[in-house]
Amino acid sequence: MQPVLVVGSVALDSIETPFGSVSRVVGGAATYFAIAAAHFTNVRVVAVVGDDFDDERMKIFQNRRIDLAGLQRVSGETFRWKGRYKDNLDDRETIYTHLNVFEAFRPAIPPTYCASPFVFLGNIHPTLQLEVLGQVESPQFSVADTMNYWIEGTPDELRLVLSRVDGLVINDAEARQLSGESNLVKAARIIQAMGPKLLIIKRGEHGVLMTRPNGFFAVPGLPLESVCDPTGAGDTFGGGFLGYLAGCSDVNDEALARAVIAGSTMASFSVEAFGLERLLSVTRDEIMQRFSEFKRLTHFEEL
Ligand code: AMP
Fold first, then answer.
1. Are 257 and 208 in contact (CB under 8 A)?
2. Is 303 part of a structural domain of the chain?
């Protein structure tokens, strides 16, 4: 089992959905990733929080396989984000994004993290993603996340990141935007030519489409009776995906397919309650059971 390094936001989130609301709960892309990945392997976090991120909030990382040597604690307020979901839970409005201590954040990789074989570059400025890549000694497998904001605002820096990573996690609208191609199969080919041979296209409740060196792999979202809060589902997917992969002896097609199911499994738990609540309580047995549910959902015999 190899460790995974993640860089990204640790946040205080306020969330409103048709099922209720929460205020200033612990969130952030790196947090969702780390909690999910730690179910499979050791996780190293590179991020920053302010002095309002008290010991009570720190507790969510405790007694998990999460190393916080790379979590800077500086004076000021932690990154804050507020989002409101419409009835269908697909459309989300960002009410505010307060970067706070994140604005001056420069990722510093502790010496103990330099030899991290698996790296996840969360959705942050591509220049910061490059700084992290520059400090890790030739990782075996690196995956980046990005969004429309960077595709439009910093295309050149993003291209540099893409030329250096093995994988990219992106949603379908962003894949079309990045490639300038509306057909997803063609879009995937165009993005692969930019660098990442592995492309994971997130399609919300409709599941995930992955391009592997030898073709596509797709899985639907698990039909769930209670979906409460989709915040962080993508980052949770990333954590399950890369956390599982880090435990495999070889990154081959079979391991990649199971990693997509591991990511989808973790994301399916995450959306069942507000914030991190469900992800924090999920057990190994529940994860195994749900993995099997995915198998039953998608399994069929040849004609
Ligand atoms: P997702 O639902 O996958 O977009 O992830 C939502 C999480 O990302 C929340 O916990 C937010 O705190 C965090 N987040 C939202 N906007 C940003 C941003 N601009 N940079 C970094 N993290 C963000």
1. no
2. no
Nearest by Cα to 196 from 159, 165, 150, 157: 165
Ligand 1: which residues within 6 Å by Cβ? 9, 11, 13, 27-29, 81, 97, 123-124, 231-235
Assess if residue 275 is contained within a domain: yes
Domain count, the chain: 1
Do residues 174 and 148 touch, judged by C-beta distance below 8 A? yes
Distance between Cα 129 and ligand 1 center (Å): 16
Residue 50 lies in a domain: yes
Nearest CA to ligand 1 atom 10: 28
Query: 13-70 pLDDT, tens per residue?
Result: 999 999 999 999 999 999 999 999 999 999 999 999 999 999 999 999 999 999 999 9
Domain hosting residue 93, numbered range: 4-298
259 CB-near residues (< 8 Å, 6+ apart): 240, 241, 242, 244, 245, 248
The CATH number for 149's domain is: 3.40.1190.20
Model pTM score: 0.96
User: Per the domain annotation, does 13 fall within a domain?
Assistant: yes
Atom 13 (ligand 1): residue with closest C-alpha?
A: 28
